[in-house]
Each structure stands twice: as C-alpha cells, then as structure tokens.
C-alpha cells in the first residue's frame, strides 16, 4: 500500500534571538540577526523581546538593514512577577518566569542566541539540547561575576582580543568555544548615521558627558546631584548627564521627573531614558568623558578624546585590571576635584591619545563588517549553508573555514 504524503508544510528551521535585557543591548546583536536573515533565506530568524523601547529599536534595525523576513515577537513575563519586580525595585526578578514563557512558546529552535547571560537558564527551562550562543554586549573591563555563566554557552562571540584573553585566563573557558567578530554596534551605526554630530547646546562651550554605571557597588551615581551642582556653578563647560539606561529601571515616575528637572537650558541636559542613551548620540557629540566603570567609555573613545573618572568608592584601582580604562584618562578622588581633573585631562590629552587608540583596538577588534561576520560565525557553527546570491567569495570562505574547524574537532 502506497503511503500518502503529508500535505502539512514543513516547519522552517528557526534561530531564536532573545532580547530581554534592555534596549541598550539591541544594537550589539540585532544587526547580526538581520544579516542572518539575508545570508540564510531558508532560515526563520525570530527576535523575541520584551518592552516597547526594545521593540522599536528592533524595528529600526530590520528596516535599516532591509531584513523584512526577520520576525519580531513581543513577550512579557507573568503579571505576578511584574508586580513583584516593581514592588522590590528589582527588575531582573521576573527574568526567570519570562524565560520559562519563551521556552514554552519556542520549544524547538535550532539555536538560542542572546546578548546577556541570564538567558543561559533556558538550558534548564525546556531547551536542554538547544545550542546556546552568547554575543557579548559592551567592551568594558569590570568582568562581573555573571561572566561565570559563560560556561553554559556552546559558542561565545566577543568583540576583540581582550574578551578572549579574559575568558580563557580568568574564567577557564576553552578557546575553541570563543570567536571574535568586532564591535557590532559600531559597524551598524557607522552605516546608518549621517556625517556630522548632533549639536546639543546653543553655545560653543566644551561638552562633558557624564555616564555613570548602574551597579551601585562601582557607580558614581551616588554623587550625581553633587556633580550637577558643581557644573551648575561654573561657566566653562556644558554637561550632559546620560547614565546607563538601567538606572532608570529602579526609579519611580516622580523620581525620574525630579532628575529631569535638574536640566538647565543651554548648560545642563539630564537624559535618563531616551534613545540617545543607546545610539551614541552623546558619545559622538561630547568632547570630554566623565564616568566610572561603564563600557561606554570605549564607545566614546572611537574618537580619542579627554576622559575623567570619578572614584566615588575610593577604590585602589592602580593595579586592578578591572580599572584598566582609568589609565586612559585622569582620576578624580572626589567631586570637589572634578573641574581640576577635567582641565588636566584636556591639557594633557595628547599624551593619552596613543594609549586610547591601542586600548580601543584591543577591546573592539576590527569592527567594520562585524554584523556580517557575526552572522557567518553563527551560521558556520550551526552548519548552515549560505545563499549563493547573498554572500561573496570571502564570506563563503569564512563560513567554510569555520565549519571545517568544527568538523575536525568533532
């Protein structure tokens, strides 16, 4: 008896990109997802995300890179976990319920790709046999404890040599699981941004970008009001207060409004939650960096410029590799020392420029073409065949070399 062929359509192979860590992570990975959509047209690339801001940026990347087949799917954690997170002022408390929901909605992807490390829990929430791929977002030096979770990933893709060296020497990760692709965010923004920088103020005073980290254990945010008061009392510099986007996550609407009210037209701009915090508007437009431990230092140093660091915690930083970035500028021990430190950084920057350039290369690698390389690295790891019309000889060669290396180790 002849068997009847099923008329059900074959389910497309799906690669799941997970964006649950905040809008600041989108430009570090979404361009890779868009590039995969074009390189592998038979592949279903799905970006699952939470939050309207993240969704809007994903839409922007999809449109900019003409990747119309890239699927965007919104997902939210259960209501009870959202209420608990709001009550505790601990936004990440609802991540596990959210990941469980994602695993149920997408039970069988060929791989899960994520720019943050909490998603490693997907391995225990229903994706036990799914290859897990991590793309690092940022290029900082602080090496948080959460980097221990890198061992849960089958493939770890980082910007440059610095991250590979740290993963091997500090976390004991096999070099075979590591790849460098360059800084994806630089590659994406360089192609979509017009030449010239935004004019933030209607005067010619130098602009200082204050960019504190969100982690209270290392951030200078505790001194932010004092920093604003200091700059409000002087006439030499304008100030942009643009902290890490996650600082706003723990603020009530009233608190956020109170911070915004500290802006002074023509002199001080306070921005806690606009897209300019993630699209490098401020990093490009400012002339001087003021921060602590944020990896956005390296985004600012795409063009070497004076940098100042506020040591609010009196850290013994000189021989600590987590503070390597502080050797690229002037360190102020208190708010009272800041203006002198800014003046000194400006006056002596010529002595720092070469070190800044070398540190940038070490951190971000060859960033031009990083989005496509990231897609090729991922595709080769999964054994995918790129579409002949969507790739060139160089891309195909890179993919085949990657696949050959994997097969040799198998």
Descriptive report:
The protein is of the alpha/beta class. Helices cover 35% and strands 14% of the residues. It is built from 14 helices and 13 strands. The chain has helices at residues 26-39, 52-64, 79-88, 95-105, 161-169, 184-192, 224-232, 253-260, 281-285, 296-300, 338-347, 353-364, 370-381, 393-409; strands spanning 13-19, 43-49, 71-74, 111-114, 132-135, 155-158, 178-180, 207-211, 238-241, 268-270, 288-291, 307-310, 330-332. The strands form 2 sheets. The chain has a 7-stranded parallel sheet with strand order 3-2-1-4-5-6-7, sandwiched between helices. It has a 6-stranded parallel sheet with strand order 10-9-8-11-12-13. Helix 1 links the parallel strand 1 (13-19) and strand 2 (43-49). The longest helix has 17 residues, at 393-409. Residues 1-10 and 392-410 have low confidence and may be disordered.
């Amino acid at each position: 008896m002849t068997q009847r062929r099923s008329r059900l359509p074959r389910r497309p192979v799906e690669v799941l990109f997970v964006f649950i860590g905040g809008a600041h992570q989108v430009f570090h990975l979404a361009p890779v997802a868009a590039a995969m959509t074009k390189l592998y047209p038979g592949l279903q690339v799905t970006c699952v995300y939470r939050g309207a801001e993240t969704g809007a940026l994903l839409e922007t990347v999809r449109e900019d890179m003409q990747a119309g087949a890239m699927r965007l799917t919104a997902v939210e954690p259960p209501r009870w976990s959202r209420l608990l997170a709001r009550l505790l002022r601990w936004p990440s408390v609802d991540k596990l319920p959210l990941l469980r929901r994602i695993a149920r909605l997408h039970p069988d992807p060929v791989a899960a790709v994520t720019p943050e490390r909490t998603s490693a829990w997907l391995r225990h929430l229903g994706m036990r046999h799914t290859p897990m791929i991590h793309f690092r977002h940022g290029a900082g030096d602080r090496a948080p404890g959460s980097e221990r979770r890198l061992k849960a990933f089958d493939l770890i893709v980082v910007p440059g040599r610095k991250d590979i060296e740290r993963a091997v020497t500090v976390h004991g990760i096999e070099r075979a699981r590591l790849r460098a692709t360059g800084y994806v965010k630089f590659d994406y923004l360089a192609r979509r941004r017009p030449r010239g920088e935004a004019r933030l103020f209607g005067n010619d005073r130098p602009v200082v970008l204050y960019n504190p980290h969100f982690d209270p254990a290392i951030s200078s945010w505790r001194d932010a009001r004092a920093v604003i008061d200091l700059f409000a009392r002087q006439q030499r510099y304008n100030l942009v207060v643009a902290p890490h986007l996650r600082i706003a996550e723990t603020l009530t609407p009233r608190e956020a409004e109170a911070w915004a009210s500290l802006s002074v037209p023509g002199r001080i701009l306070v921005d806690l939650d606009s897209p300019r915090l993630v699209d490098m508007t401020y990093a490009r437009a400012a002339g001087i960096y003021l921060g602590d431990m944020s990896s956005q230092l390296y985004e600012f140093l795409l063009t070497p410029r004076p940098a100042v660091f506020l040591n609010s915690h009196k850290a013994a930083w000189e021989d600590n590799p987590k503070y390597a970035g502080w050797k690229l500028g002037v360190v102020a021990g208190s708010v009272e020392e800041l203006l002198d430190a800014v003046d000194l950084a400006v006056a002596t920057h010529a002595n720092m420029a070469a070190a800044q350039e070398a540190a940038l290369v070490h951190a971000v690698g060859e960033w031009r073409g990083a989005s496509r390389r990231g897609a090729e690295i991922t595709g080769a790891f999964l054994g995918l065949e790129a579409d002949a019309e969507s790739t060139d000889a160089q891309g195909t060669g890179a993919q085949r070399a990657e696949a050959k290396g994997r097969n040799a180790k198998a």
